[in-house]
Write a structure and sequence with these properties.
Shape of chain A: elongated
Order of helices and strands of chain A: HHHH
Helix content of chain A: over 70%
Structural class of chain A: mainly alpha
Number of helices of chain B: 4
Oligomer: heterodimer
Low-confidence stretches of chain B: 1-8, 16-20
Largest interface: A-B, 21 and 32 residues
Number of helices of chain A: 4
């Protein structure tokens, strides 16, 4: 997926609105760490949606016989780890 | 089931998914994730093992230690292989007959799989970062 700077800036602006950076600096957090905190907040906010997306993805993929056969090969590799 | 911090996301995902996806698909994807992770970890360890043996040269004590570590990793690998084989057999039984007894057996097998999966990655992590 291509990086969409405009979308990123928009999301960042929304997150920034909920973070009082001045208060963080006042608490002794160095300004250079603020972007990391913002990024952390973004990840934290995105996780529930990410999990939901994964859930939808998995829901659509009922295992087939071919999937089961591919898994059997991996199991065989684990049973003979020197070949892994 | 014993959760370690590193394995918590997978356990949380599994808990979330069992509520909304088909149990069969969820179990299979859990198996696949555990297998993929473990095979990758063992593969990485095998690369490290070859390098360590070469570095050890003729140092018998060092070679004995390296081989002892390899035995532990391979033992853990065989355990997870056996655990995956069991869970896959239980899953196929559940697909044929989704009775509560089959479901409970499958859930129990998953607990063992989670533990073994966690063990092998932790073990390899220790040896790779030592």
């Amino acid at each position: 997926m291509a990086f969409d700077q405009l979308k990123f800036d928009a999301v960042k602006a929304q997150i920034d609105a909920g973070i009082d950076t001045a208060a963080l600096v006042a608490e002794g957090i160095a300004p250079q760490y603020i972007p990391l905190i913002v990024l952390g907040q973004a990840v934290a906010k995105a996780l529930p949606d990410l999990y939901a997306d994964v859930a939808k993805l998995i829901e659509q993929t009922e295992p087939t016989e071919a999937d089961s056969a591919a898994l059997a090969l991996k199991i065989a590799a684990l049973e003979h780890p020197e070949t892994a | 089931m014993k959760f370690t911090p590193k394995f918590l996301p997978l356990a949380a995902l599994l808990t979330l998914l069992t509520g909304c996806a088909s149990f069969n698909a969820t179990v299979f994807n859990t198996e696949k994730t555990a297998a993929d992770t473990s095979v990758a970890a063992v593969h990485a360890y095998n690369q490290l093992y070859a390098i360590e043996v070469q570095d050890a040269g003729t140092n018998a004590a060092k070679l004995a230690q390296i081989n002892s570590e390899r035995d532990q990793v391979y033992d853990a690998s065989r355990r997870i292989g056996a655990s995956l084989k069991l869970v896959e057999a239980l899953r196929l039984a559940y697909v044929t007959n989704s009775a509560d007894t089959n479901r409970l057996a499958l859930q129990s097998g998953l607990s063992g799989l989670s533990q073994n999966s966690s063990n092998i990655t932790a073990l390899i992590h220790v040896f790779i970062t030592k």
